[in-house]
Specification:
alpha+beta
């Protein structure tokens, strides 16, 4: 059964959809296979590996981030790769971002190492099934979108260079989900101290990440935190993803701690 937070996120996602994307979202958000894959990925992430949320809530938040950023870029007149390459339109790009966001971390159900590759492999048949529901017999479009969705999933850790603007959007959208709620459960689970604990403690200090229209560049990302340890999340988690992203030229990034002056990174 979905949590109240998952249900609330579903409603927010549906508010941003129309046309084919809405048709797809209505199916995917209630698809049992997707739900079970997300749930088990989270079980492995939190209970076995003691990482933060990599499940249905996180993946829905990433979907919201991708749709928000894609919308801002579109309003600024910045076409994504499908439009630039004349292989699709903006609606197709939104379909790609939705499915990639919903599936990008399902590979965590196998383990952390190379989970983006595991996730891409696990998602192929599901992606094809979902695309058939909205694109029907248009095999060319299904092949193109499937390829782009897999590129997004494979590229979301920045370990593999991904060239499309769609993959760049997902990469940054994933990095932006670092508010303290994501680290709540790992913080409650008592484990022996280990290298890497700085990740959960720094994530617990992040109060808010907002994505809005920028003033000098298309997208403004602003991070607020209650302690300076949150700068670790910005500099070691978010910034590397932005640096590797194809949409870096369109981003301005600010971080503020305890009501101080904003620190500008981009």
């Amino acid at each position: 059964m979905k949590s109240p937070l998952e249900q609330a996120l579903d409603e927010k996602i549906l508010e941003l959809t129309s046309g084919r994307l809405r048709q797809l979202a209505l199916l995917a958000l209630k698809d049992e296979e997707i739900q079970y894959m997300q749930d088990y990925a989270n079980t492995v992430s939190i209970k076995r590996l003691h990482y933060n949320d990599h499940g249905p809530v996180h993946m829905r938040k990433v979907v919201l981030n991708t749709l928000s950023m894609a919308g801002i870029l579109n309003e600024a007149g910045i076409a994504l790769s499908l439009e630039r390459e004349e292989t699709g339109n903006f609606e197709d790009s939104r379909v790609v971002l939705f499915l990639a966001g919903m599936l990008h971390d399902v590979g965590m159900s196998i383990g952390r190492e190379d989970h983006e590759y595991a996730g891409a492999y696990m998602s192929v048949s599901l992606v094809e099934r979902m695309l058939k529901t909205v694109y029907g017999p248009d095999m060319q479009k299904r092949v193109i979108l499937r390829s782009l969705i897999l590129e997004c999933i494979l590229g979301h850790m920045a370990a593999r260079h991904a060239d499309s603007l769609e993959s760049g959007v997902l990469l940054v959208a994933d990095g932006c989900d670092m508010e303290k709620g994501r680290a709540r459960i790992p913080m409650l689970i008592k484990t022996a101290s280990r290298a890497g604990d700085i990740h959960k403690y720094s994530a617990a200090s992040i109060e808010k990440v907002t994505i809005t229209k920028g003033t000098e560049k298309a997208i403004n990302i602003s991070v607020t935190m209650d302690t300076d340890v949150g700068f670790f999340q910005v500099e070691e988690v978010l910034m590397p993803k932005i640096e590797a992203s194809s949409i870096k030229p369109y981003i301005e990034l600010f971080a503020t701690s305890r009501g101080g002056d904003p620190k500008r990174y981009l």
